[in-house]
User: Fold Large ribosomal subunit protein bL9 from Halanaerobium praevalens.
Amino acid sequence: MKVLLKKDVKKLGSKGEIIEAADGYARNYLMPRGLAVEATQQKIKEMKEKEAKKNRLESEKREDAKKLKSKIESEKFIIKVKAGDNGRLFGSVNTKDIAKAASDKGYDIDKRKIDLDDSIKSLGMHSIKVKLYDDITANLKINVKEK
Assistant:
């Protein structure tokens, strides 16, 4: 029986493939678990349309991330904190503070996407990486100033 795989199946094939499977295996295992459907022309057409729509949406998201990257990298974000002698901060600047500074300028950046190795504990300019999409990262320029 020819079936269209809806999900990856180990030792059988990957999502979207049309494979030949034994009738009993297809009816009793693959279909009840939602791993495959019978390969009709209609189902194949629907699967191709879904893939095309998914690819189109992904390319749109990628383009939006590239535009956002260029906007973010052209701006400087200022964070004002209390500091003591020699430029040492009382406390530190963390991802939450950076996300708030970005949202104050109109950028919606999730604090979990900010790659900060260690909290910022000194005044001055700092460059921080932000993951915008799978392989697109932007460098945020943070200027930490004394309050």
User: Anything to note?
Assistant: The first helix runs from residue 23 to 30. The radius of gyration is 25 Å. The chain has two domains: 2-65, 68-146. The chain has a mean pLDDT of 92.
